Amino acid sequence: MLTMNNVSKIYQTNSVQTHALRDFSLTVNEGEFIAVTGPSGSGKTTFLNIAGLLEPFTSGQYTLDGVDIGGLSDNQTADLRNQKIGYIFQGFNLIPDLNLYENVEVPLRYRGIAAKERKIRIEQCLEQVGLASRAKHLPQQLSGGQQQRVAIARALAGKPRFLLADEPTGNLDSLMARQVMELLEEINKNGATIVMVTHDAELARRAPRNIQVVDGQLADFTLYQGKPTLAATRDNETVVASGV
Amino acid sequence: MLDIKPIFNAIRRSKIGAVLLLLQIALTMSIVSNAAFMINDHVSYLRKDTGFPEKEIFSFAVMTFGKDRSLSQQAEVDETMIRNLPGVINATLSQAVPLSGGGSTSTMRLRPSPETSKSVSVAYYNTDEHGLETFGVKLIEGRNFRPEEVIIGDDFNGNGPNTIIVSQPFVEALFPDGNALGQTVYFSNRPLQIIGIVETMKSPWPSSDRDEITALVPFIDAKNYQHIVVRADKNERANIMANIEQNMLDAYDKRVIINVDGLDKTKENYDATDVLMMRMLIVLVVILLLITALGIFGLTQFNISKRTKQIGTRRALGARKSAIVRYFLIENTMVCMAGLFIGGVAAVVLGDVMMKTYSISSLELEFIVGTAIFIFAMSIFAVIFPAMRAANISPSIATRSI
Amino acid sequence: MFLHYIDLSWRSIKRTPVISFLMVFAIAIGIGLTMTSLSVYHMMSMDPIPHKSGNIFYPQLNIMDDGNEWHSSDNLPYQLTYQDAINLYNADIPVLKSPSFRSGFSVHLNSPEVKPTMEPARLVNREFFTIFDRPFVYGAPWSRDSQDTHEYVVVISEKINDRLFAGKNSVGQHIYLDNNSYRIVGVSANWEHHVKYYDVNNGAFNVAEQLYIPFSIAPLEEIGTWGNMNGWKHENSKGYQGLLASERVWIQFWAQLNTMQEKQQFGDYLISYMDDQREKGRFNREVLEFKLRNVTEWLEYNKVVSEDNRILVGLSFMFLLVCVSNILGLLLAKFLKRAPEVGVRRALGASKRHIFAQHIVEVSVIGLAGGLLGIAIAQLGLWGVRVTNSYYGALANMDVSMLLTAPIIALTASFLAGIYPAWLVCRTQPAIYLKSQ
Question: Which of C106, C311, C328 is nearest residue B63 as measured by Cβ atoms?
């Protein structure tokens, strides 16, 4: 599904160079659910942004679903985002002017789907996250958990094969966090590949596979050895850390 | 002073805002200084003394179609009738109405043609011995026409007048050394002796370059279409004007009386285009200044909202309120000065282009300086309120995240 | 998608009503002022007779002896002498031509019921009506015959016909001009022109004359001109007959020359005519000079569009530019504030083009609203012009083309202001704004 080979990202501001990612390599298989952890400033978000085609990378090679990302134009990456990727953000990032229905509609419009088909999909997705009855409400009329469920519905509406979540439960209390996590697990069961960035170890542990980013590089997964629930699922790991 | 460098850097970083402000100030500067100059031109023209007591004078036109009476005899009868109306000071026949835009000019020379001599183009009024008092112009030298000097007829060359009363500018143009009284000028090769000089007497075209070299010629050529000028008591004028048509028709009815207008109204009609231009320029300048002031206000506001946290941090680090206000004032001053400088140069260029393309005199420096000072003061005014508000930003903002 | 963008624009405008109103207002004020001066300019400079303005020509002859100067830009007198006008009219060249000048009469029916009024009149030959395409409500121009036999005939305007004859067909009736009776041969439709292009002597924006009588009556009744009369040399002429024989210019002249060839022939004729006159003692000059200007050139030559108006149009466009830079600032602030939302849209698959289009549509909505409000403001401005100066009454109006121009200028102005902010916002890197909101 996703292969990164020695991907680096350097931020250049005036005279200061920051290596956000260095020689980062990772493979994610179809249907996986990966939790990415790491200290703040380690490069987790940069990794997620690059994986989600939200940011260009400086060097290396990245293939998503068989497509080499390196040489794509802005329009092509926009289309890929629209068709293959769903996003869930810590801040929900719902558009405040639009009601729930319209928020979910945004990616479908950009894909040029007909109104009738849009309606079916939106209702289906809102149903799935349990908010069908509140389609006409504006985001600020909802609780944080509800907003995040709308964001998930929006991510699902495009039937993405690849779902990226950046601290999806970061702004939520533990009860709501659990509900959101259960929703993600259900989505994963239905076939979508999920990469989730989190600093919540508890949450990370629920994911079948864990990786950790430290200082812009993939750290050794064995940091998590000794935690039996994870060890069992990690037997068929294909790619581990790289770099020195 | 000490703050200039960091402010300058800040301006450079948020360059779009600064460039916009600069552009706006420069444009405003170049438009306003030129427009103010033109407004001043129009105002000083409109305020100029015409020499006539405009509120006491009115005129009307008589179109006679009856052929059963002598026009010049009838004119005598009419004049006498009007002079006897209560409130009327005097009345005269005149081939042209002052300030009306319609009249006659002719070249007058020191020697008869074809001899070459000094000559001048003169706007003249053919009138009689009542003309001087009716027009209300001030005689500063010499005397009025005597009744026997007024010639009635249609043969100017053969049996015309021998005298003339001229305006002071006429004297200055033709007799620079000032000794005009008693001299002879040639009008269509007829020698006329200057017997009187009036101070100011505008022509029928006060806004043209033929505006003040004028003369009264004692010659009455009564035609079927002619003008009568009447001077009356200021308070009685409206009343007399209301009845004049009936009075004239009662005296003789085979004619039409039209254009009964006060001289102030006549001037207003003549100046309508100038007044219009002046009004439009004033509207343009006022709105433009308002818009620019709003623009400066808005941009300062925007800059402050972008820098709320920074200002809070500065306050937390010990900056006084006055320092914050000063910061914004200096920032504004720098942008404004640059804008005014560019605008000043643009104003000169624009003024120059207009002077070359149109009949506008060249832009005077004091208008550029005056406009610059005004715009600068206005910009300070537009900045000071948002800046004071910025100074009131609580230092605790710095510790909160936004 | 377009309708969706309009919907989004409307929401955005509603969300920031003050800024949106300021922007609409700034465009409206700019458009209002610009359209006020531009409308007057448009009316002044509009081709008054578009289908044949290139075929109607005004001849000017340089009648002055060498060593004399005229106050025109090319040293040619603006009008013709009576004798030249008559000679040109009688010249054996088969084109439509007519001398003309403005005068006026008291008009009455020689009965006490109708009070005499003064009406401006034009003395022309019958071809004048054809040259200028004057439609007739009743009757027709007088015949060549009545013209040649000095018959007292008149063409009256619809307006006079309405007043004196209650709008009925008055052909064959008589009216009095001064103390002469004239037979009405035709009633011409009212001439509603913005520019009195056939005679700019008494102001280019004056109203049309209400009466037309044959030019050949002028010498019989010694009819004087109400326009300009200028001389260039001293003449001992006396009375009206003296004027007719003099070198004073006071007659206008028009000829319809349909082809370049006709124009060439007419020009050749003018030269041979002047040459002929030179032998008779006139035109004492080295180089014979004439000009044939068509209607458009004639109006240009006479500087019909006032200088003040040109200046105002220029200044008001500069003013509009100030408004644009103001709006640019406001749009920048508004759009950049919305960058996080744009980031989300970009993440959800919007291309740069989508984002750009969305914002340009918003700018257009603002521009269009400003344009419409600007038309209202311009109407107010034009009303002010009409009140200040009644002479501009017919000019201070917006015709259809100006009504259409207003939104176009408004849209252009808003694009000018909106393109940079829209471009800036569409370049938003999606990642930057997603992390925390």
Answer: C106
pLDDT 10s digits, A60-87: 999 998 889 888 888 888 888 888 888 8
Total tally of structural domains belonging to chain B: 2
Domain membership of residue B54 (yes or no) is no
Three-state DSSP class for residue C431: helix
Task: Give the pair of three-digit tokens for residue B3.
Answer: 């703050």
Looking at the DSSP bridge assignments, the partners of residue C180 are C177
Domain ranges of chain A: 2-233
Alpha helices in B110-236 (DSSP H): 131-135, 168-174
User: Tens digit of pLDDT for each residue in C384-400?
Assistant: 988 888 778 778 888 89
Closest chain C residue by Cα to residue B296: C326
B·C CB contacts under 8 A: 133
Name chain A contacts of C353, Cβ cutoff 8 Å: 75
Question: How many other β-carbons are positioned within 10 Å of the β-carbon of residue C280?
Answer: 7
- Calculate the CA dihedral of residues A86, A88, A93, A97 and round it to 10 degrees: 50
ipTM: 0.83
Q: How close is the nearest chain C Cα to the Cα of A150, in Å?
A: 14
**DSSP letter string, C389-422:** -GGGTTTS---HHHHHHHHHHHHHHHHHHHHHHH
CB-based contact C234 B189, cutoff 8 Å: yes
For residue A55, which residues of chain C lie inside 8 Å, CB to CB?
Answer: 429-431
Q: Do C348 and A54 touch (CB under 8 A)?
A: no
Q: Which residues from C are below 8 Å from A52, CB to CB?
A: 347
Question: Positive or negative CA dihedral for C190, C196, C202, C204?
Answer: positive
**Domain residue ranges of chain C, discontinuous segments joined by +:** 2-48+306-433, 63-288
Residue of C nearest to B354 (CA): C311
Q: Minimum mean pLDDT among A23-32, B132-141, B298-307: which range?
A: B298-307
Mean pLDDT value of segment B349-361? 84
Q: Residue C317: which region, alpha, beta or left (left: phi > 0; alpha: psi -120 to 50)?
A: alpha
Co-location of B163 and B75 in the same domain = yes
Asked if A78's CB is within 8 angstroms of C351's CB, the reply is yes
CA atoms within 13 A on the CB side of C94: 1
Q: Provide the CA B121 distance to its chain's centre, in angstroms.
A: 23
E strand intervals along A70-219: 85-88, 162-166, 193-197, 209-214, 217-219
- Which residues 6+ apart lie within 8 Å of B240 measured at CB? B58, B85, B87, B88, B230, B232
Task: State residue B117's pLDDT score.
Answer: 87
Across the interface, of B65, B157, B360, the residue whose CB is closest to C106 is B65
- Average pLDDT, integer, range C84-110: 93
- Answer whether C366's CB lies under 8 Å from C414's CB: yes
A2-233 folds as: Rossmann fold (3.40.50)
Tell me if C326 and B24 make a contact (CB, 8 A cut-off). yes
At A177-227, the pLDDT tens digits run 888 888 889 889 988 999 998 888 888 888 888 888 888 888 755 444 444
Which residues, at least 6 apart from A198, have a Cβ–Cβ distance to it below 8 Å? A35, A36, A37, A165, A167, A168, A169, A170, A204
C-chain residues near A166 (CB < 8 A): 434-435
CA distance A178 to B350: 71
Tell me which chain A residues have a C-beta less than 8 angstroms from the C-beta of C8: 97
> Closest-CA residue in chain B for C203?
B101
Q: What is the span of the domain harbouring residue B28?
A: 4-47+271-399
Residues in chain B: 402
From B225, B253, B281, give the residue that closes a domain: B253
Residue identified by tokens 């010694």 is C222
Which of C106, C307, C381 is nearest residue B255 as measured by Cβ atoms? C106
d(C-alpha A211, C-alpha A224), whole Å: 9
Task: For the beta carbon of residue A135, count every other beta carbon within 10 angstroms.
Answer: 17
